[in-house]
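in:
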């Protein structure tokens, strides 16, 4: 990423009067000249928590959790991935590589210079954030993973995994949003974002949320993506999930040596991940996950931040109190 990246920027007017999102913009210019947006609230509070989102959401997903954490005395940082939310959006899909997203987030974390923080990582927030942690182990001293996965693939699986993921997209044909709603598979998800003329992000968020989102809330999820040219990020993300296998395996080698506390908070109703052992993978591979109060969040779909924001925050705060009591923090 030595050259300047061609990007577009969603006009500020698109974000006027968003429902429950009164937060001031903050920006950081990263390599390639792209500008990353982030919410920063509770500055000056002793404990810092990073809230990392995935695809196709943005920091709006954390609007309620931000409020609850600030009320509890936390310094909260919630960035928008490049290509999402209020961050700049490279037009050419070639820039939306797994490696680039890790590099951008790594630079963001490094430039902030905050260590010994906590992070809540969901969806691509985990796929990206965990690789950042592997390279910057002092960034966090506790970690919460939720509805995410970081595939460790070895042997012949290194060759079969990308083929299988691509095949699922191909076999999905030309899925409509109605088809995805009735059959929430990765293939239909990936196929919809690859082939839909203009993906409806707000409706996708509703399909993967148990509670009913208001129209203003769905509008807020659509706000960053005014038309087709803004969509390279959300479209590309499902296509790159099976890339960087060697780098992911290397990250796991380092993460398995990381001994700080780890908590899993997965949903009971996530159509992609619930009941498939992704939470136990983290519980097994992280030394610091042993003996922690892992729970399954009830009545929550993939975007559990929408369904159970207060419950998530309460569980994290209770966990923090236990760690403090035992002088682990």
């Amino acid at each position: 990423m030595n050259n300047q990246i061609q990007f577009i920027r969603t006009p500020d007017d698109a974000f006027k009067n968003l429902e429950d999102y009164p937060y001031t913009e903050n920006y950081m210019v990263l390599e390639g000249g792209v500008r990353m947006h982030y919410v920063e609230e509770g500055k000056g509070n002793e404990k810092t928590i990073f809230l990392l989102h995935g695809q196709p959401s943005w920091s709006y997903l954390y609007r309620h959790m931000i409020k609850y954490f600030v009320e509890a005395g936390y310094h909260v940082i919630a960035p928008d991935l490049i290509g999402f939310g209020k961050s700049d959006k490279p037009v050419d899909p070639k820039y939306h590589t797994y490696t680039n997203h890790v590099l951008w987030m790594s630079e963001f974390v490094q430039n902030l210079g905050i260590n010994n923080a906590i992070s809540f990582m969901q969806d691509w927030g985990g796929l990206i954030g965990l690789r950042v942690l592997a390279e910057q182990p002092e960034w966090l001293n506790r970690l919460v993973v939720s509805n995410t996965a970081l595939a460790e693939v070895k042997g012949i699986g290194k060759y079969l995994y990308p083929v299988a993921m691509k095949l699922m997209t191909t076999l999905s044909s030309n899925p409509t949003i109605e088809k995805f709603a009735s059959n929430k598979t990765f293939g239909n998800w990936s196929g919809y974002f690859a082939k839909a003329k203009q993906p409806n992000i707000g409706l996708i968020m509703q399909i993967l949320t148990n509670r009913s989102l208001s129209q203003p809330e769905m509008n807020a999820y659509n706000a960053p993506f005014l038309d087709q040219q803004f969509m390279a990020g959300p479209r590309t993300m499902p296509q790159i999930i099976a890339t960087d296998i060697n780098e992911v395996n290397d990250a796991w080698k380092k993460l398995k040596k990381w001994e700080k506390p780890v908590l899993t908070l997965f949903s009971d109703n996530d159509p992609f991940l619930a009941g498939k052992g992704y939470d136990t993978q983290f519980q097994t591979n992280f030394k610091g996950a042993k003996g922690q109060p892992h729970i399954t969040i009830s009545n929550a779909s993939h975007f559990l931040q929408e369904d159970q924001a207060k419950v998530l925050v309460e569980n994290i705060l209770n966990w923090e109190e236990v760690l403090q009591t035992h002088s682990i923090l």
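note: The first strand starts at residue 7 and ends at 8.
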